[in-house]
Amino acid sequence: MLHILWLIFIVSAFLASLYQVLILGNLGAFSDVMDAMMAMAKLSVEIAIGLVGLLAFWLGIFQVAERSGLIALLAKVFEPFLVRVMPEIPRGHPALGSITMNMSANLLGLDNAATPFGIKAMQDMQSLSKDETTLSNAQILFLVLNTSSVTLFPIAVFLYRAEQGAATPTDVFIPILFATSASTLVGLLVTCIVQGTNLFQRVIVLYLVAIFSVLAAVIAYFATLSADVLASESSLIANFLLFSFIVIVLLAGWRKQLNTYELFVEGAKRGFDVAITIIPYLVAMLFAIGALRASGVMDAVTGGVAALVAALGMDTRFIDAMPTALMKPLSGSGARALMIETMQHHGADSFAGRLASVLQGSTETTFYVLAVYCGAVGVRHTRNAVACCLAADGAGIFTAILVSYWFFA
Fold it and tell me: Fewer CB within a 10 Å sphere, N or C end of the chain?
């Protein structure tokens, strides 16, 4: 499905550019699209090269954690849940530890750490695959959980709101948690239904109740804090936990009398190879997204949605933030730019400015995640992964709009 969607992006951009030249008389339309495509191709390489250091560092740490037995110990906590929603993965398999580490990093909003762990998880699951060119059910569910992952500390959104003059930059904190939780839950439900997984198993239900109870407790706690305290405390907790993990990993390796330095270097060597491997996949996806945006297709879709909503007699205030929602599955940097532009134009504390912030924090960048993770293992056939990921995105966007009307209208 991904290759069909990719072709639709490119053809749509071409037809939109042709319309601008022939009908609107914009003779620079094709030039603008080509400039955007070349810029995105360059950006793809810059992203991959920028990942080299991060991949090397975290794969090095992961190597020590794995050899020390720490990952296996951590995986046992979530193993009963994971082996039921991902029955293809046997108990005790290294993939369980990689998945646990990736989800933990995502939960804390540590994107830089989550990506290497995610790539490692995809590689571990690939070792179980009968067809190495096609995503397995476990890999699809993992991708869905990644693109819809719950993030407890969306610190970047707070910082951008503060820069744009928001009176209370963190007033979107609870709405973001509601939206991202809904995205994750719907993504899990849709994927498990498609894959025929029974979600009413006692263990799965108990884990989901426990997880969402913890989320509710976190929301209740942080809701009592002032804006300044919330931002500083969430940043402190996330970074403390991250640094603590690194120290614990190294001490665990030392306690087992391992040469942690050599193990770290051994794992880090794989960082460069992985970064180079994903470049073609990033180029393919990002240049299509650049063309789609530069051709005016995004603006046309937004305008069409606005006209439809107005014709139905519904409130149209949310339309001003929809560019961020439509861009988020395609490009993280594009969505961030649109969020900032919305806050600049309408005000950070306007309904549109707040909704754009909630939308930015509600889901991950779907097609970037698919390009990076599938590229890391050389998968060409994504099966129903795109549809399941977009279902989760749709739930996150819909919930973000509803919750924003509840909190800010």
Answer: C
